[in-house]
Amino acid sequence: MFSSRAAENLEEQISVLAELGYTDVQPFFFGPPEDMASLESYSALLKRYGLTAKSGHFTLDLFEDAPDLVTAIARRFGMWLVVCPWIAPEDRPQTVAGWKALGDRLARLTDLMAARGLTFAYHNHDFEMHPLPDGSYPIEHLLGDRVPFEPDLAWMVVGGADPLVWLDRYRGRIPAVHVKDLAPEGTALDERGFADLGHGILDWQSLWDAAVASGSQLMIVEHDQPSDWRRFARRSIETMRAIGRGTEA
Questions:
Q1: Three-state DSSP class for residue 138
Q2: pLDDT tens digit sequence for 188-229
Q3: What's the chain's average pLDDT?
Q4: pLDDT at 35
Q5: How far apart are CA 85 and CA 74, in angstroms?
Q6: Using CB atoms within 10 A of its CB, is residue 31 exposed (0-12), middle (13-18) or buried (19+)?
Q7: How many CA atoms lie within 13 A of 117 on its CB side?
Q8: How many CB atoms lie within 10 A of CB 158?
Q9: Alpha-carbon dihedral angle through residues 120, 58, 219, 208, given to the nearest 10 degrees
Q10: Phi-psi label, residue 188: left if phi above 0, alpha if psi -120 to 50, beta otherwise
Q11: How many CA atoms lie within 13 A of 247 on its CB side?
Q12: Gap between the Cα atoms of 175 and 248, Å rounded
């Protein structure tokens, strides 16, 4: 849903995605919803157009300050996977110890959500893939030994990492993958350097196969800033049909 946020309204988003053939979407919550009625309207629209929402993105603050609200939203939508997608720049540690402490917080959320029947996961961007002075990586400390992972493979490449290495490393701890493509360097600057799936430079057939082998149950197509969200959604589902061979998307 983040990729199609430029739509005129929620029903336009949902109706277009359903018409194109999407069967599941990933809502995002940058803060508490205005009211529960808005959530009921949202979930009712999904049901009307035959879409499910098996996962959702919630801010770290929302997880820590309002876990009951996260749980209520997840149950309203029928989500089983709840994901923390971002660490704001001002909250990013400067030391290994700081990253480990943040990882401990994510581990506590993993337990908290599991006790409520939900799977918690962390979603990366590029900064988690930059090596620290001791040669370790922030993502290693954030995930620790047991925090599940929703990797964004294009952001990994932007961060200088090889997605295949990390997919294999966290095999069995990856409930979902963000499916995203990159434009050739220096192009698509108005779209933050990203591309519609299958129209960029990444070998997504190999990445898709590796993601499925890692255990991913949801393959979630995304573009951070498409100039035309309808074009992105149409071209991307065409590619997913070609490379997915029946995998749930």
A1: helix
A2: 999 999 999 999 999 999 999 999 999 999 999 999 999 999
A3: 96
A4: 80
A5: 16
A6: exposed
A7: 8
A8: 18
A9: -80
A10: left
A11: 25
A12: 12
**CB 235 within 8 Å of CB 227:** no
Reported as a single tens digit per residue, the pLDDT across 56-84 is 999 999 999 999 999 999 999 999 999 99
- Residue 180 falls in which region: left (phi positive, over 0), alpha (psi -120 to 50) or beta: beta
Residue for token digits 């997840």? 74
Distance CA 186, CA 160 (A): 16
Q: Beta strand pairing status for 81-84 and 55-58? A: parallel
Nearest to 103 by CA among 69, 132, 80: 132
Share of the chain above pLDDT 70, in %: 98
Cα angle 12-221-2, degrees, rounded to a multiple of 5: 45
Please report which confidence band the pLDDT of residue 248 belongs to, taking 50, 70 and 90 as the band edges.
very low
Residue with token string 């990492």: 161
Are 249 and 219 spatial neighbours (Cβ–Cβ below 8 Å)? yes
Q: Sort strands 149-150 and 181-182 into parallel, antiparallel or unpaired.
A: unpaired
User: E-strand spans in the chain?
Assistant: 28-29, 55-58, 81-84, 119-123, 149-150, 176-179, 181-182, 194-195, 218-221
Structure tokens at 22: 């999407």
Q: Taking Cα atoms as reference points, which of 95, 22, 32, 36 lies closest to residue 58?
A: 32
DSSP letter, residue 184: P
Which residues of 55-164 form beta strands (DSSP E)?
A: 55-58, 81-84, 119-123, 149-150
